[in-house]
Amino acid sequence: MKVAVVGAGGVGGYVGGHMARAGVDVTLIDQWPEHVECMKKHGLSLQGVTPEESHVVPVRALHVCDAQSLAKEEPIDVAIIATKCYDTRWATELIAPYLAPNGCVVSLQNSTMEEEIAGIVGWGRVLGCIASIIAVELYKPGHIKRTIALGSKDHTVFRIGECHGRVTARAKAIAALLQHADYSEVTTNLWGERWSKLVINAMRNGLSAITALNGNERDLNEAPRWVSIRLASEAIRVGQALGYALVPMQGMDPELLARAGEGDKEGLEHAVSKLVGVAQRRRADQRPSMAQDIERGRRTESDYINGLIARKGAEIGIPTPLNAKLHELVKAVERGTAKPGPGLIDGI
User: Fold this and answer.
1) What are 256-277's pLDDT values in tens digits?
2) Which of 67, 187, 212, 341 is the most buried (most CB within 10 A)?
3) Strand 126-131 relative to strand 158-162, pairing
């Protein structure tokens, strides 16, 4: 099976690197010239929380400008889109001409980008994949670190699913590919899984971005944790109203988490215990991707996370004032009209 990963950043590089390490015919395509050149010359350095997880892997890397060379080769069976959400369209357009007749495209991204991909290649060629508690960062060219423990039989990191919800041979084959990076399985509930992951992103990414708090500082301190729980509550209520079958989110029951944000004591105790438990398994330097983006002066995915939740809530009449406010604050920090710091959440 011939694989291409478009977007060899934290998640894409980590997955593609481990596939290469296992002998899969995989090509990593990225737009950062220094990163591509480093991978070509020195391989891809993969690091984890234990010494046994550290590897330097020879990989085939192409800059986006060189993707046209794929026309001279056998076509791509599986194209994995692992770019930021706002880069989905060009990334899909880039790889679509090189797909095999039965080739497919997998969205290994935040939010719900399958529809945009389907608008280019058709729904029948699209699958989605959720990455749960993977915490990876491309911290310099050619170097990716993972800041949380590997998955296990009790925690599946990758869930791959067809848009129609059936289990297919190709979904199973892609799950086997992802297994080289960490535990994976096929889901029959792609949309419920997608929105559940969106809830986790909504309660964490933007909050760390505007406060400059790392994951543990955010979850172990009462004030930001309370904002986080309320963000999740709004997102869950929107997902429920849209009809999604939500699943436990890092051990948190969706209904209990929603009630926690609405002031329910039992729900709050449940949410706090789970959030603290996850924090105790993280490396101290773990930061969500949006916080990394703000630090490096890059565009964020807020439009596709808290912004999306606020828009969907408005469409169906579910109030999401906190998600709307957080999205507003992220955009202000992104534009440079507000400075990140814990004080930005005072009073919200």
Assistant:
1) 999 999 999 999 999 999 999 9
2) 187
3) antiparallel
pLDDT in tens, 274-307: 999 988 877 777 888 899 999 999 999 999 999 9
Cα gap 170→20, rounded to integer Å: 20
The span from the CA of 7 to the CA of 113, in Å, is 14
- What pLDDT score was predicted for residue 180? 97
In contact, 77 and 100? CB cutoff 8 Å = yes
Contact assessment for residue 287 and residue 304, using Cβ atoms and an 8 Å cutoff: no
Cβ atoms 172, 195 nearer than 8 A: no
Calpha distance 266→133 (Å, rounded): 25
Query: Which string of b and e fits 144-179 if b means at least 16 CB within 10 Å?
Result: bbbbbbbbeeeebbbbbbbbeeeeeebbeebbebbb
Helices (H), the chain: 10-21, 33-42, 88-95, 114-121, 169-178, 190-211, 215-220, 222-241, 254-261, 265-279, 289-295, 306-316, 321-335
CA–CA dist 257, 237 (Å, integer): 10
Same domain, 245 and 174: no
Are both 146 and 233 inside the same structural domain?
A: no
Cβ within 8 Å of residue 299, ≥6 positions away: 84, 86, 293, 334
Spatial separation of the C-alpha atoms in residues 75 and 96, rounded to whole Å: 10
What DSSP state is assigned to residue 249?
B
Q: Domain range for residue 207?
A: 193-345
Residues 1 and 25: beta-carbon distance below 8 Å = yes
Task: Please identify, among 188, 203, 232, the residue that sits at the C-terminal boundary of a domain.
Answer: 188
- Write the CB contacts of 132 (distance below 8 Å, at least 6 apart in sequence): 155, 156, 157, 158, 159, 197, 200, 250
Residue 208 CB contacts under 8 Å (≥ 6 apart), including other chains? 214, 215, 218, 287, 288, 290, 291
CATH of the domain at 64: 3.40.50.720
pLDDT for position 174: 98
* Phi, psi for 184 (deg, rounded to 5): -145, 155
The DSSP secondary-structure symbol of 7 reads -
Query: Any idea how long the chain is?
Result: 348
